[in-house]
Amino acid sequence: MSKKLFTEKEAKLLSANNYFKSVSLKGITYTDELKHIFIAEKEKGKFARDIFEECGFDVDILGMKRISAASKRWQAAYKKNGIIGLKDTRAGNSGRPRERELSLEENNSRLEAQINLLKAENELLKKIRFAERRMKK
Prior knowledge:
Layout: H1 8-15, E1 20-23, E2 28-30, H2 32-43, H3 48-54, H4 59-62, H5 64-81, H6 104-136
Antiparallel strand pairs: 1-2
């Protein structure tokens, strides 16, 4: 999050743009549509500042630090997970996780991971005990 806080007037100006989901005095939530447009234009070779200006943003109010941070964050998410990585999932991940039946494969993989973790813990405890015995001698 940027250290720059918006004034009431700046927040009102920014919230008029359709590419913002929400604007507060501390931060901005961008729409998924803007992120898709940004990545498409960035792949064509445009600069982040130019893309934001074309989408109707006042670059002086946003600040270059916030623009470059958003650019880096979106490009990293796109490289890691593709278009799905750009989606804002905060609304879907809140609250208690749903309880659902696991398939046999999912259950098997979870149990294998748990077994591997326990094996690693056992090996670590063996090494600690061995080191303690050496210290006593």
